[in-house]
Amino acid sequence: MQTLKGTLLFGLQEAILHQLPLSSQSVISTSALPALAGFGAGLVEAVVFTPFERVQNVLQDGRNYRDLPTLKSVLVRLRGQTLTLGYYRAFLPIAARNALGSSIYFGLKGPVCAAVAGEWCHPMASSFVSGALTSLVGSLAIYPLSVLVANMQAQPGGERTLSLRSLHQNSFNMEGKSPKVNAEVEHFDKCKLKPTTTNEKNFIPTKKDIEDEKRENEKPNVKK
Prior knowledge:
Blueprint: H1 2-19, H2 33-60, H3 71-79, H4 91-116, H5 123-153, H6 164-174, H7 179-186, H8 207-218
Helix pairs in contact: 1-2, 2-4, 4-5
């Protein structure tokens, strides 16, 4: 799926860039046109690939293995829901993430490549370095949105909305780091604990004890 997404993204960005009217250059600088085309390509990418990402996130979440173990069961569950709760759940965060990431990548790739290029750097190496740097910047910028999307789409159904506050609390609870528990531990008074004593007894049987035990074992069983 990543190959298809990359193909669609780069192909759409170049097509949108060539279709931008020349009159827009008087309003928007020429260096910003690739970012604008990347923004539009990211929106189209979100429309096309949101259902596939939805199914993937449901399948990858371990909490759904019991109820939704197969691809067919996931498709049946999502088909019985509305688009906003089913295949297109978390569409707005995905559209914002893809559009922002694409605009950052295509907007910075040209200037970074020109800054890296030089007599000491091969054109292929400069293209590789600029692509890696711009991808890193874009990934860091959209990482919170990616976490939000993964948590929203992992749920096969249920709540209509999922707030950032609830996601934050759920992540703490899953890791065993609930703020409420931490506060109780910090304010716990150890002086309230009752003192306890443990007496260790190392019992060593004597010779008389061993003989008495043998006599008890040698007694015949008396039937009542």
